[in-house]
Amino acid sequence: AICGHGCKYGECMGPNKCKCFPGFTGKTCNQDLNECGLKPRPCEHRCMNTHGSYKCYCLNGYMLMPDGTCASSRTCAMVNCQYGCEEVKGEVQCLCPSGGLQLGPNGRTCIDIDECSTGKAVCSYNRRCVNTFGSYYCKCQLGYELKYISGRYGCVDVNECVTNTHRCNLHAECLNTEGSFKCKCKQGYRGNGFDCA
């Protein structure tokens, strides 16, 4: 089976037919499925959509059970956690619904971990890290765009001279470079390419 547009998070099952991995949707399985919007809802109280998955958490005073339901807990109510809690060996601990969040100094609220600045994020060559609340994603570096070429997605150089996104002077020629461009004044003109006289 050949899928001309590829199946980003799935498998090609027939001519241009993708079978998406759980948590993904779309013709090429490139879109995250928002499980929180499904009926029936996967979580009893609150739901946080994540890339390819989701996390359940409970209102204050409730404890998250393994099946995604929330059980009333007097001890949890006393601790006053932002995202529900769990009891471990009689100790009550507040929870954060994502690995990209950590408990704040008060032990009750969750604060974001900036994976981009801590170096926890791993983005491949040509991609830059963009932090989000509770996670991060990798975006093409400036001067590159995401394209599907020979069976996979990759960051490809944007030719600013062809797309006309350069800022060269009217009397200059544009020269494309990897990830950028240069401007050179035409014969008979002098300057840096952005200003030619």
TrEMBL record:
Stored Gene3D superfamilies: Laminin (2.10.25.10)
CDD domains: EGF_CA (cd00054)
UniProt-listed GO biological process terms: cell adhesion; cell differentiation
Record keyword Iron present: no
UniProt entry keywords in alphabetical sequence: Calcium, Cell adhesion, Developmental protein, Differentiation, Disulfide bond, EGF-like domain, Extracellular matrix, Repeat, Secreted, Signal
GO molecular function annotations of the record: calcium ion binding
Stored InterPro entries: EGF (IPR000742), EGF-like_Ca-bd_dom (IPR001881), EGF-type_Asp/Asn_hydroxyl_site (IPR000152), EGF_Ca-bd_CS (IPR018097), Growth_fac_rcpt_cys_sf (IPR009030), NELL2-like_EGF (IPR024731), Nephronectin_domain (IPR052235), NOTCH1_EGF-like (IPR049883)
SUPFAM superfamilies assigned to the protein according to its UniProt record, in alphabetical order: EGF/Laminin (SSF57196), Growth factor receptor domain (SSF57184)
Xref: Pfam families: EGF_3, EGF_CA
Assigned protein family: Belongs to the nephronectin family.
UniProt-recorded name of the protein: EGFL6 protein
Source organism of this protein record: Ciconia maguari
